Automatic annotation (TrEMBL):
Provenance organism: Gemmobacter lanyuensis
Protein name (record): O-antigen ligase domain-containing protein
Magnesium listed as a keyword: no
Keywords noted in UniProt: Membrane, Transmembrane, Transmembrane helix
Keyword hit for Transmembrane: yes
Transmembrane segment boundaries: 12-31, 68-87, 107-124, 136-154, 192-210, 222-246, 258-276, 352-374, 394-422
Length: 451
């Protein structure tokens, strides 16, 4: 990272610091030192990126968004873990055993972990708020996707072994890598679903660059796009193929202003999803029946997930405001044996169960707010929307939608959200200062003498 920050512009150095560490460092393990939070591929790059900004670039990073809503969300994000700890001091039964109550140390650790997690959000707000920087995000995703396609293809043929060969252990359940008579790759990520979603981001980025490329570069960009689309299909993940089926026509045909507005609408749906699920306003049974027409196996898997979420949502309602806290207290166990009876897959139900509604609104609100603010400025101002800004907005919206079935919230998610927030705030500042600058220009013009 030191080399990156000495040789590259700050925007590209930040992008490759977060993206490169996410793709290359070992998953699901951490260095556990006393007092300080665990250092993993999710936290260590964030801390180093902040160190580079402070001590190499000698820059100042603002930790407060311009909007009042953003500042309130930051305050809740920081303070809600303390309320979670104070309301969960009692142990929870796990069959014949007990899960310990929360301690004050747990709140300090949770605040530290959350503060580290959102560092890319604030760094991107500072360095990636321009359309040119967002183009650099898309170029990085395409480049990384092309490079990552090599180990992905190796694992598709030989089974997921890259992490075993390089780091000496397998990071998940090997059975879950077997799909459709072959294997889906995992490489250095936590699960094959994470790899599939990264392939989706790379393929969509290539498509965005293709659409806006000059004529002389389109042939090469078209080959990269086709290759990444083929790679996406080979990942054998139905969810990302559904996302691609909806997003590819949108990227090819829809005006960029429409793309931004649809991204904001998807973000608003994600934010309200727990309310809609709790009120039973979403047609989950109809979705299961529709999926069963194509694959009874996938429909059964979807229904199993829905049933789990219903049970976990009912448990979360017992402590709605501040949640159950950590150590698995938010899960459901057999009252006799203590065996787990629930699986929490989606980031929304995990956050809602651990931190309650306040924690959920703080975390998801910070991720959704940039898209809502960008949509507001798009409606208020008659300015042309950059293809890079619209493209990153749609990719972020797809990532937010994927947080409903999966927990694919990664440092790059926060990076994209911070970049869009910075862009939305810059547009808002220009809108507010435009009348002032117009009056100053009018006063500076020489007055005409009327005869």
């Amino acid at each position: 990272m030191l080399v990156l920050y000495r040789r590259l512009p700050p925007d590209r150095a930040l992008i490759w610091t977060i993206l490169g560490a996410y793709l290359a460092l070992p998953p699901v393990i951490a260095l556990n030192f006393p007092v300080i939070p665990d250092l993993s591929k999710e936290s260590l790059p964030n801390l180093m990126a902040l160190s580079m900004a402070l001590f190499v670039l000698k820059d100042r990073i603002s930790l407060l968004p311009d909007s009042l809503v953003g500042r309130v969300l930051i305050a809740i994000f920081v303070l809600s873990p303390f309320a979670t700890v104070l309301t969960n001091a009692e142990p929870v039964a796990k069959g014949p055993a007990l899960i310990q109550g929360m301690r004050l140390y747990d709140s300090v650790a949770a605040v530290a972990n959350q503060a580290i997690a959102v560092l890319p959000f604030f760094l991107a707000r500072r360095y990636l708020a321009t359309p040119e920087a967002m183009r650099a995000i898309l170029v990085a995703l395409v480049g990384a996707g092309l490079v990552y396609s090599i180990p992905m293809l190796i694992e598709m043929r030989l089974s997921p072994q890259m992490n075993v060969w390089i780091y000496g252990y397998f990071q998940h359940d090997f059975f879950q890598t077997i799909r459709a008579g072959g294997y889906r790759p995992v490489v250095f990520l936590p699960h094959g679903l994470w790899v599939a979603f990264f392939a989706l981001m790379a393929a969509l980025s290539a498509l965005i660059l293709l659409r806006a490329s000059p004529v002389e570069r389109r042939a090469r960009m078209a080959l990269a796009t086709l290759w990444l689309m083929l790679l996406l299909v080979l990942c054998k993940s139905m969810g990302v193929l559904v996302y691609a089926a909806g997003l590819v026509p949108l990227l090819m045909l829809a005006p960029r202003r429409v793309q931004v507005l649809l991204a904001a609408a998807a973000a608003a749906l994600v934010l309200s999803y727990p309310l809609l699920r709790g009120a039973h306003l979403l047609p989950m049974s109809e979705i299961t029946a529709f999926a069963e027409r194509f694959s009874p196996e996938r429909a059964g898997s979807f229904q199993f997930r829905v049933d789990n979420e219903e049970n976990l949502l009912a448990r979360a309602e017992l402590k709605p405001w501040f949640g159950w806290g950590g150590y698995g207290r938010n899960l459901i166990y057999d009252p006799i044996t203590g065996a787990g009876q629930s699986i929490a897959d989606g980031a929304w139900i995990i956050t809602l169960g651990i931190y309650g509604w306040l924690g959920y609104l703080a975390q998801f609100g910070l991720l959704v707010l940039p898209l809502l603010l960008l949509a507001r400025e798009t409606l208020r101002q008659k300015v042309e929307v950059s293809p890079w800004v619209a493209g990153v907005s749609l990719i972020l919206a797809a990532n937010l939608v994927d947080l409903l079935p999966n927990a694919t919230i990664i440092p790059f998610t926060w990076l994209m959200a911070g970049a869009i927030l910075g862009r939305a705030e810059a547009l808002a500042r220009s809108r507010r200062t435009a009348p002032v600058e117009a009056r100053r220009a009018a006063r500076a013009r020489p007055s005409k003498t009327v005869i």
